[in-house]
Design goal:
Layout lengths: L1 E8 L4 E3 L9 E13 L2 E10 L5 E11 L5 H8 L3 H8 L2 H7 L2 E3 L4 E4 L10 E8 L7 H9 L3 H9 L3 E3 L11 E6 L1
The protein binds zinc ion.
The site of zinc ion has 8 residues, from loops.
InterPro entries: DUF1062
Pfam families: DUF1062
Organism: Plantactinospora alkalitolerans
């Protein structure tokens, strides 16, 4: 029997970045962009607010680009402060690298299992899909989805009753499957 689970975002992740004002290390995307067009060049920042003191940080999205090279559709979304665009840009590896930030997905996702009626089967294959690249520990997901203590999940792995082609003890952010035998 094959079941599908899905890891889905429930809100925007926080941005890990040190605040120069209060030394907090988390910023929340404000949902607003700042666009500065100067002659033929354009700069775009995504504005984020320190979760502790409210200080504004600017995350560079576009730097000294020629206006003509920017898709008009993107400009419209920037001017409209499109919330979907904030989510896309936060998760864009190029934006993350350019600003030397990472994301904090704690409390920003949930696991959809479609119910627990399958858990009494002798053997189940579960396919876990990620709606966004959210780094999670498979061991934690399996404990939550199968309603088992973490120690029991570790024991099942050690006993060869919980198997996968991926390493279940680390962190993952892409689709995987596992088999649970009772
Ligand atoms: Zn601060």
């Amino acid at each position: 029997m094959l079941k599908n689970w899905m890891v889905v975002p429930t809100c925007l992740p926080l941005v890990r970045r040190r605040c120069h004002t209060c030394a907090s290390e988390r910023f929340r995307a404000s949902g607003k962009f700042r666009v500065n067009a100067n002659h033929k060049l354009i700069d775009v920042w995504l504005l984020a607010l320190c979760t502790a003191c409210g200080e504004t940080a600017k995350l560079t999205v576009l730097e000294r680009m020629t206006v003509r090279s920017v898709r008009p559709e993107l400009l419209d979304r920037l001017h409209d402060n499109d919330p979907g665009l904030t989510a896309e840009l936060l998760q864009d590896p190029v934006v993350q690298r350019r600003n030397r930030v990472a994301l904090d997905w704690d409390d920003a996702w949930r696991l959809d299992t479609g119910g627990s009626d399958h858990l009494d089967r002798e053997v189940i294959d579960i396919s876990v899909r990620f709606a966004a690249r959210i780094p999670v520990r498979p061991v934690r997901l399996i404990a939550e989805g199968c309603d088992l203590p973490r120690a029991e999940v570790d024991r099942l792995i050690a006993a060869g009753k919980l198997v996968s082609a991926v390493r279940l003890s680390g962190k993952l952010s892409s689709d995987f499957t596992f088999t649970l035998k009772r």
